[in-house]
Amino acid sequence: MGASKRHLMAMPEAVIRHIGTALSVAQYGGKHPDAKPWKGLGAGVFEVISDFDTNTFCAVYAVRFEYAIYVLHCFQKKSSRGVRTAKTDVELIERRLKAAKTEYGAQYGPVK
């Protein structure tokens, strides 16, 4: 969704491989060991955290759709409050999940 792919591809190669592997596992119906539920948006939304060279990167994706996985947001965590994700990132993820539901419904029919 949005610029998620472009943001992922701008990350370090090791991060791209780590997150890409997790997304591939999800695409085939599994759950990568590093994937954990994203709090606040209900079942079927996960995040993968990847640490590289003192930086932390995150990808949030939705698997709650039968025929598609939507990568909602990929970003470098830069919170000024410890491990908490910035409010702007959380709001963007929420907006993109709503857009994914709309897009999925238009392509595949109503979300079950």
Structural overview:
The protein is an alpha+beta fold. It has one domain. It is 38% helix and 23% strand. The protein has 3 helices and 4 strands; from the N terminus they run H-H-E-E-E-E-H. A 4-stranded antiparallel β-sheet has the order 1-2-3-4, with helices on both faces. A hairpin with a 7-residue loop joins strand 1 and strand 2. The chain is globular, with a radius of gyration of 14 Å. The two termini are 20 Å apart. 25% of the residues are buried. The model has no long low-confidence stretch (mean pLDDT 91).
Descriptors:
four-stranded antiparallel beta sheet; about 110 residues
In short:
By secondary structure, the chain is α+β, with helices and mostly antiparallel strands. The chain has helices spanning 4-9, 13-27, 87-108; strands at residues 35-37, 45-52, 55-62, 70-76.
Order of helices and strands: HHEEEEH
Percent of residues in beta strands: 15-25%
How many DSSP helices?
A: 3
Please identify the structural class as seen in this structure. Answer: alpha+beta
Low-confidence stretches: none
State the helical fraction.
Answer: 25-40%
What topology, given as strand order, has the largest sheet? 1-2-3-4
Query: Quick one: how many beta strands?
Result: 4
Shape: globular
End-to-end span in angstroms? 20 Å
Main sheet characteristics? 4 strands, antiparallel
Question: How many domains make up the 3D coordinates?
Answer: 1
